[in-house]
Design brief:
The chain is mainly alpha-helical. Helix content is 77%, strand content 0%. It has one domain (2-243).
Length: 244
């Protein structure tokens, strides 16, 4: 597993993909948080990082599938996936190695944004007038959300040999899980079942964690979704192995 992880990390670091993704994320959210007047924290009445945490999931919807789209699709296109499967590695070791590499890149993108917290903490009046529990809850939620998107993206990458198709599928499935269930729950026909439908939406759990109350139900759902998507990836790889 470590060999696959190291290979993926080196592939990211030796190409522009990893650096480009991190730069786009930091520049995009940085402009929204500090420059654009509609969302700038400098023009806000309260000292908080709401603009950052409300915009980041939508940026992740596109950036994380861009990271994961090549993970298995490129291997399949180049014919190296079958070669990789012949090595003395189990499927889950290959999947975890690739998944952890994608996840590390996501975490690297998030780490510099901690400066936003420090800056807002210093700018508060009085200094430190910031709901730190909500901020750290939101960071936990954003990290778990990124982990869920990475698992979804890895699964969609295993479905096709075309990276563009993998990217589009990843964006679509991530969007459905993040916003789709909440939108569907708003339909009147669901009545008392609306809460159950909304519970499957990632935004429900992300927003709950952002309030600073770490409820095990939300964490367990996110972890369960990650495991389910990695399991689907393993099933896809197994089916391809038996068909060849």
């Amino acid at each position: 597993m470590f060999a696959v992880f190291k290979k993926e990390i080196n592939a990211f670091l030796n190409s522009l993909v990893g650096y480009l993704v991190i730069c786009i994320f930091l520049v995009g959210v940085g402009l929204c948080v500090w420059v654009f007047p509609q969302t700038s924290v400098l023009d806000a009445v309260f000292a908080d990082l709401y603009p950052f945490f409300s915009l980041s999931p939508y940026v992740f919807l596109f950036l994380i599938p861009a990271i994961t789209m090549r993970s298995l699709a490129e291997e399949r296109k180049n014919g190296t996936l079958e070669l990789l499967l012949t090595h003395p590695l189990q499927d889950w070791q290959i999947i975890l190695g690739k998944y952890l590499a994608c996840l590390v890149l996501v975490i690297f993108a998030l780490l510099p944004t901690f400066l936003y917290y420090v800056s807002v903490w210093w700018l508060g009046a009085p200094q430190g007038n910031l709901d730190s529990a909500a901020v750290f809850g939101s960071y936990l939620g954003l990290a778990l959300l990124g982990a869920a998107f990475a698992a979804i993206g890895l699964w969609t990458s295993s479905l096709t040999a075309n990276q563009i198709v993998a990217f589009m599928l990843g964006c679509f499935v991530c969007f459905i899980f993040y916003y789709g269930f909440s939108a569907i729950s708003g339909i009147d026909t669901w009545s008392s079942w609306a809460y159950v439908v909304a519970f499957f939406g990632l935004d429900t759990h992300y927003e709950a964690l952002g309030k600073g109350l770490i409820d095990s139900r939300h964490v367990l759902y996110l972890l369960s979704l990650i495991l389910a998507m990695l399991g689907l990836t393993a099933l896809t790889m197994s089916s391809r192995k038996w068909s060849t």
